[in-house]
Protein 1
Amino acid sequence: MKASLAPFVAVFSVLTAGWAAGTRLHREEGAIYLEDFLSDPVELRILQTVNAFYTLEGKRYLGTMKPGQVVEVLAISDRAYRVRGVAQQGQVAGWVGPKFLEPVEDEFLDNLRKAAERKKIVDELIAAKEVALGMTIDEVEQSLGKPTRKSSRIDAEGRSDTYDYITYKNVPQYNYYRDGYGRVFRDVYYVKVETGKVSVEFQDGIVGAVAEMEDNQRGGALKVVPAPVGLF
């Protein structure tokens, strides 16, 4: 396990590549899918002959894998791992028992579970178009979209960024005038007026503060999510 995981970068991120059309696996409840957290594959070696199944519950036999083969781990649950490799019947992606694979470090599994718990919280915030302390720049953009304007500063304490999300409305204004016969006419034009602003401050890519215009405040305490989790 150590040799196969050593090259991978230990940073948690939600990868848009894993969300592209046609790339996501059929999801089993209770399993953690590595494509949500890693851009590079995790590979393990098969220790004993093992049967692979289509479902986590062990239904629908797909094929038999032999010892010594290196497989890609697609998902992890407490009961089984979903792996992709070559069986006697051809290439398959199925669930196998963890005891048939070389062991995974406990630290990696613990961090993976923490990352999955954090992702669930962040996904709910994004669905509600909310921001919380501890979110990343990418997560804020998924929730609120691209900022109206942004600024950056680098000092001895590191890099800080501010994203401003501004809302506007067009307010009608009127001009009155008389024509040559004394008749009064009115012209209307519109002025773009700022109606709300949310400023999100990042410290080294993580939300550290959120400021809102008084008439734009949503009420309630600002939510906090755990910091991104390093997997290795």
Protein 2
Amino acid sequence: MSDVSVVGGGLAGCEAAWQLAERGHAVTLYEMRPVKKTPAHQTDSLAELVCTNSFKSEDTSNAHGLLKSEMRSLGSVLLAAARDARVAGGTALVVDRDVFARRITELLSAHPNITIVRAEVTSIPAGPAVIASGPLTSDALTASIHSLLGDDGLAFYDSIAPIVAHDSINLEVAYFASRWDRGDADAGDYLNCPMNADEYAAFIAALRAADTYEGHDWENIPYFEGCLPIEVMAERGVDTLRFGPMKPVGLRDPRTGKRPHAVVQLRREDKTGQMWNMVGFQTRLRTGEQKRVFTMIPGLENAEFLRTGSIHRNTYLNFPARLNGYGAHASRP
């Protein structure tokens, strides 16, 4: 079996390295952290989740669930680690991100066919290689990729949602429920902060007026439609959020027996339930503005923010135009 270089210790790189190693290949997995850090990562662990801690639905009637079912049958190391790190999340596969990353790091470090090298790769390796450096690829490797593929990649921002402390959430207002009561427990796996029409209108007005980080001139690039900052969604219309991440459908308030005008959902971040992620609330608001505006949400009036939202630049390649169906360049079959 041949030696293979895998560049990047994120989700794709770790899975690729594991699958190759399980098939007898000698794999060198390169991860530049902690030698060179990124704007979004917080630890040195492999497969660190910098945005959401949800892998989405496990229901095999949709694409997300079907993909995970197929991955399990193929011996996915990611899903094995996710099983060990799982936290309650209804039908979604949600993990404690720290436990998950540590487990992946342990599994790959112990594999006899995988050698982990902590160093920045500045150019595409000459031999057989998987480039899985992800959207936070270093400048030097980005230049090497551009020289091979041409500089026609799509660059855009990705945003990170805030995390609040559980003991700072007002449980006299916020209530446990999963949409359509699909949680593992009768009470549901999500915390829900209900809003009436007046509260929602005031929140949208404050969100639209809040001060945001605009970035540098070179950062004026398109947003990814699947992960828009919440203030960008609010600018698109008064009801955009109410039909998006704040939709109240299937989340009847047990105290009133009625469906709220809008709902802010919080998802468990860790196994002990001490940290809760504001679902869909990725943002580029300045730190002080996040605290001012988000504490207008009923139930979060005294919220302690363990992590505020932030943005980082992502760069994605034009795969269909530059690579074949196997993800290889014509010059590198």
Protein 3
Amino acid sequence: MITFILGLAAVVLGLMALVVFHEFGHWIVARLCGMWTPVFSIGFGPRKYSLVLGKFWDTEFRLSPIPLGGYVALPEMGDETSAEEIARAYGAEPRPFKKFPIWQRMLVAVAGVVMNIIVAAALLFGIFACKGQPTQYITSTFVAAVSQQVNIASQAGLQAGDVILSADGKTVVDPQPLVDELHSHPGKPVVLHIRRASAEQDITVVPNANGQIGISIGYNVATKYVPMSVPQAAVRSTKLTFAFTGKIFYAIAGMAHLVPSTPGADASSVHSIVGIAAYGANTFKTSFVDFLVLLASISLNLAVFNILPIPMLDGGYVLFFSIEKLRGKPLSVQTQNKLKMFFLYLLLMLFIFGIVNDVRHPMGK
């Protein structure tokens, strides 16, 4: 229980770090563009309940009481009216409004996404440079389940969990030699040398005409690390980051039926922060390196999700700015707010759906 709590704390800190880096991307680009950033907050909540960490570069840094993300107040990303509302909402006195070019506002909007991609690449680079590239390999093959329809294995005495060491004297480590041996002996006996608990024994089976004996095969894997030089680590981490980002985009397009779906990427793979936190806590207990890889994966998923053209997300700002560029004027504040509220409800429904999946289809199960 204590290790799970420590893992959960590590997940919370890791997720908060990803949020801080994301918001830092918005903040630093906004400042470099000359925008006013009155508040940089880790967490949400009113100022009177927040810990004010200090003021730097015309920005008040806060640690707010609700640790569900963070934000940078950017009054000049909208129009003059919304700028005054944003300033007052975050406890800052309004300033003379300055209209920034669309390209600068777009840079600020995508900066958080870019920062998440950089963080993921940096995490992978650290793993590759310090420990090496993780490579999984099969250590043993076992009986995952015994069928009652094709009952050859069950009648011979095979049980779920039996580790298969050899088939007719041929060593079995990964499943393929076992499958090949069974398929090459239809109607003929095959001697399987197995380990059950700590004892070993021989069990003879006679595959049917299809080379089947009625078992589901599983295998155990282990991880080894292949050393890499710093330049190799830099190249490999960059390639993997962009490759994995592309796979996330493709998986989302598959869920939307825009492209052929990716195996395992369906509605049941949508999870909430609750399920992700539980999975991350268990991963932290198992392997710190795997935990860092998970953080890199979460960072990339945050980047892809945030850049989708959905109001309330960074991609929504890009969408609004693109429309403004095409029309020569922005959508009205009322229209933008209606779209934001509509998609806010959709995102809340998605969150509830993720909670349901956390219960029905836990991550890693």
Protein 4
Amino acid sequence: MKTKQFKDENLAHFSYAICSNDEIALIDPSRNPQQYYDYAREQGATITAIIETHPHADFVSSHKEIHDKTGATIYVSELLGAEYEHQTFDDGDVIKVGEIHLKAINTPGHSPDSISILAIDELEQARAVYTGDTLFIGDCGRPDLREEAGAITASREELAKQMYHSLRNKLMVLPDEVLVYPAHGSGSLCGKGLSNKSVSTMGEEKQTNWSLQEMEEEQFINELLADQPFIPKYFTYNVSINKRGAVNYSESVASVELREAITCESCANALNPEVVIIDTRPKAVFNAGHLPNAINLMEGAKFETWLGSIIKPTEKYYLVAENETKLRSLIERAAKIGYESLIEQAFVADYKVNENADFDALKLYTNLDDYTLVDIRNETEAKDLMIFENAINIPLHELSERSTEIPTDKPIVVHCAGGYRSPAGRSIIKNNLEGVEVYDLGENINAFINEGACKI
């Protein structure tokens, strides 16, 4: 038995190929299936099974596409209500892959339809458990994503209670030497305290994971519900896509219309003014010239997350990049969350209109009261570290809807935690509020954090 772990760094997502005797079972595959086909070819093996631990909220899975291409059987819990061809896989069900057996364990808590998969080798020894979003390394899955999504909905309190019992009655009873392979690591929004480790053991988790420690049910529920991360706009959308199965990845990406480079001189009649523009170029390039109402969401490690937090799954958007290579890459990244289908058009930018957006951060040291400070970090970030006492905290994912809460009697300075989100925040506020100067503090925020400028 061999386990191959695949990692999507941008979404902190782990997927798996379990190989035994020239057969492979995939668990929670990501949107682009090519890496799994390549691995199967390298191993001289055939993909015979695909298992989904639940309908994921944070990425689109390729389970249906792989089934359509290879004929491999998809296994999911009956509770999922899958709309594609599949076999149910619940407590007590076992499938054979080569010389090993994979056993289903219903582990509701993150979602009502979550399962974990126990791998049992040819000597009938439990070797590994693939825990999906139920048990992470150092944490467990959040219980607040299925209140309005999926075939079965449940309150966060109900799911937190189910999580308490799933962890204790289904997973903690496994031998200490069993390897733990979760669906996510540090950086995922599917939990709040995930480790940066990619594999653990049940014994180590029993000793170090807060969610497996001895505590009463009520205490566990209160702790689990407290301070969970924000929920991006795209999460419910992805649950519905995964429930029915996504369209072919390569065909969908190729169907995005790429226009020739657009200049500001030609843009007035070329684009629909009602459609949001996501301009991914570096801040300095964006500020040197951009289309009206564009949002400067730069290419970065969390591009997918912030794209799906700013753009609703019910709206179209234009995608802009500085060259065709980056444009095609960003279309592929948008496809990881099913947002390639929302792209009205994609094009390379060629703008010549200049805008003075430079801001002298030193002015804040002596003239703090002359500006309205807007902190676009998430609520938990602002709670953990206050940078400016009088800043208005409106998280980036809520900014489009809440910009009118910002006073316009003073120039506005936007900041985040390190300078990646603030260009997007500045451009959103600038687009929504007229007659006021809006500046981006950018990376200068680090000086205020390091030097304790919040006390000024």
